[in-house]
């Protein structure tokens, strides 16, 4: 009876992975008392085969889940319509509650039938036995056996906790349950300090900003967190996860962030290979509708690096909601996991981000300054200009206030706090982070990210002459135009390198540098172009085109 109840309440099982020979328990190694023997993969098909009763019951419950999601998103309109029609009176609400209760009882009966179907299936009984054993004792053998199954990640045991002693020893105070530290918008000047009356006047605007951010705004900014989209992408995500596990020997883990969010991660270890790239770990930060199963981490994987992918809060197996604070909390526990559990030194970690993932990448670079390098692909400097692009002009004040207070993705500000090597990849046909049309390459916000970074690091070089020539270089939409502008100014790379190395040897590596202070305008132009070319590479593609492995390069450094 206990096993039947476990089958009724147990998670949905999607797939049984093909077991790799390297992962099977050696015959001379005794198993722990709580471990469970798994049949060889030859006896079972790699895809889980539910019995007819479980299959049909699952379909009914899945359909009910979709209808509930649609009802949830449309509930404000539904309530408004029912109120206008007079259907919210007590005499009509009571019968409706009876119908709802009857429907819930029917769904509970369907769930029990699904449990009976699972109980009659030896594959599911074997799986639930392993899952229960792992929750009782998270031994290495139990975890190894559980990793052969792909199931609803909510039931996966936590593998790493943000409060683990090993992750707190070297942290500078560490995060609290309120979250890690973020850069906040500049406070008001003293002369404009709010009085109580002003605060009361602003209260309606603040309430409107909160409602917009927590309803429409968050879902527009992170559409991957919408349940219906995840449901539609589920077959693709399962296939991508199977590829990572079966072809790359990926290891899945659940991390618990300081705000309670559970973060779904996938680690591919290449340290045992002969390639030197495998000694470095690339942590991938996906876009606003990206998942590690099918996302940007495939590029460093193909390039031979060790890779750690993770999903945003509220995406696929990760729980929570993707607000900036939650995003930073998730990134913090991912980096801690890489250092303290996977055993990588910060100097061997590279942060690679695509699109909106630039926020968590720059936060990690700011908060962990010893990280080896940062690569930002198709990213931007600030969210406000892009938000204003897609919203009505009459909403300008509300949009700006909402972004600054609740959705402040200040990538450039965070990146300027990082002292290490940076590479920006600009898509020359990007249709997402341009503020006008894709053909207008100067409206690409990646340009602003580069200019703000160079102006912070080399303020004397990026004075009037340097800034002007870099903007001319950024106008180039092809490699031929780019090379033409570069050669027109006769940039002597050896001279530029010698100037920068001499300054570094005399003054140290800490930015900002005052190099170029006593230099001619011609010298500043050469240095500005040289630095711009080293920090930004063009990729002739649209926003969502996968980056080829040959374009994945480590950033330049002296």
Automatic annotation (TrEMBL):
It comes from Orycteropus afer afer. It comes from the Eukaryota. The keyword Transmembrane helix applies. Phosphatidylserine (PS) lipase that mediates the hydrolysis of phosphatidylserine to generate lysophosphatidylserine (LPS). LPS constitutes a class of signaling lipids that regulates immunological and neurological processes. Has no activity towards diacylglycerol, triacylglycerol or lysophosphatidylserine lipase. Also has monoacylglycerol lipase activity, with preference for 1-(9Z,12Z-octadecadienoyl)-glycerol (1-LG) and 2-glyceryl-15-deoxy-Delta(12,14)-prostaglandin J2 (15d-PGJ(2)-G). PANTHER family: ALPHA/BETA HYDROLASE DOMAIN-CONTAINING PROTEIN, PHOSPHATIDYLSERINE LIPASE ABHD16A. Residues 25-43 have a biased composition (Low complexity). It is a multi-pass membrane protein. This is Phosphatidylserine lipase ABHD16A.
